[in-house]
Structure formats: C-alpha cells, structure tokens
Amino acid sequence: MAEREPKVGGKGTRLAVAVVIVLAVIAVAGLRLSFGSTTAPMDKVYIHLVVEEKTIEVAPGVAMPLYTYNGSVPGPVLRVRQGDVVNFTLTNRANNALGHSLDFHAAKVAWNVYYRTIAPGQTLTFEWVAEYPGVFMYHCGTPPVLEHIAKGMYGMIVVEPRDALPRVDKEFFLVQGELYDTMDEMMNAAPRYVVFDGYVNKYIAEPLEVKVDDVVRVYFLNAGPSLWSAFHVIGTVFDRVWIDGNPRNLQLGLQTVSVPPSGGVIVDFDFAQAGQNPFVTHAFADASKGAVGLFNVTGGEAPPPPPVGTTTTVRIVSGAAGKTTDAYDPNPVVVVIGVNNTVVWVNDDTLAHTATAVNGTFDTGLIQPGRSATVTFSTPGVYEYYCLPHPNMRGTIIVQAAPAH
Ligand SMILES: [Cu+2]
Q1: What pTM, to 2 d.p., does this model score?
Q2: 398 CA distance to ligand 1 centroid (A)?
Q3: Are 73 and 59 in contact (CB under 8 A)?
Q4: pLDDT above 70: residue 208
Q5: What b/e readout covers 239-264, taking b as 16+ CB neighbours within 10 angstroms?
Q6: From the CA of 78, how far away is ligand 1's center (Å)?
Q7: Which residue in 84, 328, 374, 391 has its CB near the most CB atoms, within 10 A?
Q8: What is the mean pLDDT of residues 291-309?
Q9: Which domains does the chain have, with CATH numbers?
Q10: How far, in Å, is the centroid of ligand 1 from the Cα of 172?
Q11: Ligand 1 centroid vs 140 CA: distance in angstroms?
Q12: Among residues 101, 104, 80, which one has the least CA distance to residue 91?
C-alpha cells in the first residue's frame, strides 16, 4: 500500500492565506485530473483538520463569531482519488468552548463511532475508503447541527473518479453557505447573508478570470444549512452537468442546476464573448443577500455594439439608513451595458443620502428626499459604492466593457 502526503495539511491559517493556499493546491491537482488517472488504487491519504472558533469578516466592515476548520469558512477544499484510504485526524483546539465533530458525506461508516463529538483539547483519528467519486460535503455533526453548519463548519471534498472526466481549461471550486445572527433566523431559514466562499459578493471584488472559449469547470457545493441553491451563470448554458459530481450522472444543456443543502455538482461551460458574466443562485432573494459573483471574460472577438445613451434608475428605498445591501433598488448589483451611459439615483427616503464610490471615482453629493442625482460612467469596471452619512448602505454598479469601434 503506497502512502502519500496529505493534499491539505492541518495548520490553522488566516482566511485570505488559506484561500490562496487552497487555490494553489487546486491548480496543481487540476492538472493531474485533466490528464487522467494513473493512480494505483488504495493509496493512503493523510488529512488533518483543526477546529478553531474565531471571529471572521464576512462583509465589508461586518465580522461574525464563527466555528471553522483550519481557520476559514468554508474549510479547505480536500481532494482525494477514488479508491484512496483516507486517514483523517480531527483536532478540537484546547481553547475552544464547544465540542465538535466531522461527518464525511463521501464515506460509509458508523455514525456514532466515526462522527462522534470530541471535547476541546481532544483529537480523533479514523480511516475510511473513498469508494464513490464526486463532490461531497464534510461538516460538523454536533448538535445543534443547524447551528454548527450555519456558523461555518463545512467544506468540500472532491473524490476524483478512476476514469477522469473530459479535460478542461480552467477549474474553480465554489461553496454556497448561509450566515445568520441568531438561532431564530436559523430556525426560520432567514439568513442575514447568503454567500459564496464565506464572504458577501466575494467574487465581484475578485472576479474569476477566464478566456473566450475556455472550457470552464466549476465544482459547486451547497452547504446550506437550509436553503436550496439554483446555481446559474448568466450569459451561458451548462454544456455538461454531473449531479453530485458522479461521472455516471451526466446531464446536458442545463440553464440552472438545483443543488439541495449538502448537494454537490460539477458543471462545464464556456463563454462565447468577452465581457463580464455574473454567477448567482437564481433564487434571487438569496442572491440579493450576497450570493453574486463575476466571471471576467477576456480575449476573442469583440461582442456586438451595446446600446448607447441609456439611463438606468436606482432607487434609494424608504428606510435606507437602516439597511445594507438592500438600501438601493435594484440591489445589490446593477449592470450597465456599455460606457457613457447614465445611472440616476432617486431618493425615495425621508433622509438625505449619497452614492459615493469606494474607490473615489464618483460621488453624487447629498441627494435630498424626493430629489435625484446622475452619474455617467465612461470606464468599464466594477464600482462599489456606499452612502457617506450611512456607510452601512452599499451597492455595486458594473459597467460592461465596451466593444472596439
Ligand atoms: Cu461544531
């Protein structure tokens, strides 16, 4: 039985660093997957995760007390091969307050033995065989499970199939989850935020970079704990979809894929034109709470000329001073097609507000109740803005790249 080093080690890391490391691991692993499986079965893979209870920033200026694996939400993306023996160790740090556990959806084992809760300061090691290929959830199963998942104790484990999937140009790994302030919100499945990879609108600030005609593969997991995801990429169609990531579950030509809480999927697609294409859960009440990201598509021929000279209206809603990403309507993202188009902010509230760019590129000044202000956008890009007197109010204008004339 050959033994290999773990793909992801057990050191606690800060969120940003963890993401970079995980993506780096993925980049290397992705190449191997693309060229097919050459592995003898029954390799042993060592994985060590450390539970850390900590406060993490989940939106600009908003931090929440969460429970983590290895210090990040979600926990690291784990990657093994079908047939591997997974030697897994869980450590619950001594300075944590609560007991925790870990449940691998990819395993067939006795729940009460393998997934038992360990107290702070304890370590648990067990082995299981990754018999089923796919995109699986791992999570804390300690009661109340609802709370431990809502607080961030989840991640994705990919079991690569023995017979590799078709080769692709780019791979991404996305985990949808919900964030709550209270147990009441959890019980009502009414989250404050719905996010990809633990942060509100994370991939608007950091778009995923692809090229025209790249075959793009997304490994997607919906960690829940309670809402369905309607995963959708705007401006393309999923050419191939493998439900739960199992090569035998192939579906073709889907617009949106339904992913239940704890479900996984692999989707392949491409983009025909350069531009910017959001990805969302098409359950738009959830998307408006932070589950929007962007693909930035470059190369290829320029798209057809967009309409010019249009005006887009954004309303500052009643009671906006107490709101966040829902203070502006539509929210939180408005896409403007082409440059030299105008956005008009109309103030429907009883207080004066502004729309002020985070990067300083525009500022409407105070818009009095019942009045409006206009900004014309001459440069493509993503413009995050807020209200100067009420910086909790936040919105985003996306100006799509203009074609060459
Ligand atoms: Cu837990």
Answers
A1: 0.72
A2: 38
A3: no
A4: yes
A5: ebbbbbbbbeeeeeebebbebebbbb
A6: 18
A7: 328
A8: 79
A9: 44-160 (2.60.40.420), 170-298 (2.60.40.420), 311-400 (2.60.40.420)
A10: 27
A11: 5
A12: 101
